[in-house]
Specification:
The protein has 205 residues and is mostly helical. The chain is built from 10 helices and 2 strands; from the N terminus they run H-H-E-E-H-H-H-H-H-H-H-H.
Amino acid sequence: MAHEPLSPDAIFREWERLLLLEPGHREMREPKVEQVEGWKALPRRTYSGGVWLISAPEAALVASLGISIALRQARYADAIAVAGEYLDHPEASRADEDTQINTNHISVRLASALIMAGRIEEGIDRFASELSGPGLSQAYRKNVVRLEIFAPLRDLGEDEVADRRTCAFTASLIRGLQGQHAKARKATACATNGDLLRLLDSTFD
């Protein structure tokens, strides 16, 4: 039986309820079962046959939560798919500030998912594109680095050999956002993901 689409207020209330079930630590893998099941019910009321039944602000809430849950469960392909669904929303490219912020956030989360899925070059390209966008403050860019770039590196494994593309990208971030050329040179010589994490942590503290 088809469900009636949820109202914006109902979507926000359910998103807020499910968000409060988030684990306290970002690195914790498994979300609570209640949160997962609650989120699964949302798309049935908001997305059907490849078409969103709700406007972009509410779609961003649904998609962002779905991406977060999928990433916690290491379901990277699902996270990529959910992000793509939001970015295909006909209103996702609107020029108003709130929509641009939401779209940038989802796109950055997509970049994280791509890197975690091993699609490193695609993820780096998307990060670079989003971080160079007009109108973004330095504080926002630095926050993205801390929240979204640390996580993929940890997920890939701190003892793993650092990918040269990741090293070069990290160097460009340190040089471009912090102006620290000596540390940027160190990034290109990092041997492991753990080395990169420690360098980023000391740069973006």
